[in-house]
Amino acid sequence: MSYGGSWNKRGEWLEMTPGKALLGQPDRDEAAAKWLLETVGMPEKLYRKLHHEQGIQWRGDRLRLVLFPYREYGIEPRWQELQVLYEDDFCLVVNKPAGMAVHPDNESRETTLNHVVAAYYEAEGVHAAVRHIHRLDKDTTGPVLYAKNEYAQLKLDEAMREKKIVRMYAAIVQGRVSQELKRIDLPIGKDRYHASRRRVSLTGQAAITHILSAEAYPKASLLHIRLETGRTHQIRVHLSHMGHPLLGDVLYGGPGTFARQALHGERLLFHHPFTGESIEVPAPWPHDMMELRERIIEGANR
Q: What are the Pseudouridine synthase RsuA/RluA-like domain coordinates in residue numbering (predicted)?
């Protein structure tokens, strides 16, 4: 369910023209509630909140919703260059660089992507809480999706739970990967001997990785991967278990021939939380991964 009509953002309000079918009802408020919940697909939790706070109003033939209220960022803005891949009033997708965590932990005071997004919002005059929908490992590059309001967060969180947000990766791994390896379906759990590691474990959580294509060279392979589930370190654990650790991923047995794990999120696909439009966001490869691939190809041609 989604809204395919025209709408405008006016300050904290979103304005829609739902049409004569709704305006002609004897009880417009009741008709609006049914339309918002059943046709537009507004989360019931948010509808109840807006209704209680008088955040749903009629102005002539227009239905107005407080979908863009002023919110604190929730994290200190720290300016740094940021590559924006997609943005509208509901969503933001940014390209995370290597060596940066998405969000802070309790121990480190390092600048994270969330700090940088807060600074971007501040510079653009956006008054929204910084809400990431998914994460990438600190040394993995690629797109990270943010919700710019509560409506988007509720809808995108639901899409994540239902595995409707598609994340595709490029990985450069050790050895020649067989063309027969298409799907890895092995549960992943914590490694009792190493706090930061995960491992394949029969008692772990279900984890499925799809290998869409493989370019095999004498000593390494370039894989294009789609995640069906999103367990911590999933790609790294699965490929290491199959005997093909990522180059640079010393935590999982990869050769230290690259400064980090050779993993990049190269594409993100999702449905817009309000309009339902299908959105595909490609993320350009970082220079270090492009150079690594060139070295591997050159080495194969010698």
A: 92-241
DSSP state of 177: -
Find the helix or strand (DSSP H, E) in which 60 lies.
none
Q: Classify residue 45: in a domain, yes or no.
A: yes
pLDDT of residue 233: 95
Separation in Å, CA 134 to CA 71, 155, 158, 160, 285: 21, 13, 12, 8, 19
Taking a C-beta distance cutoff of 8 angstroms, is the pair 124, 148 a contact? no
Q: Write out pLDDT tens, residues 70-86.
A: 999 999 999 999 999 99
Active site residues: 137
> Based on the domain organization, do 266 and 295 belong to the same domain?
yes
Nearest to 274 by CA among 158, 166, 155, 162: 155
- Name the residue range of residue 251's domain: 83-300
Q: Can you list the positions of beta strands (E) in 11-138?
A: 13-16, 56-59, 62-66, 83-87, 91-96, 131-132
State the CATH number of the domain containing residue 296: 3.30.2350.10
What does the pLDDT look like over 264-277, one tens digit per residue? 999 999 999 999 99
What is the tens place of the pLDDT at every residue in 276-299? 999 999 999 999 999 999 999 887
Rounded Cα distance, 266 and 178, in Å: 22
Together in a domain, 225 and 294:
yes
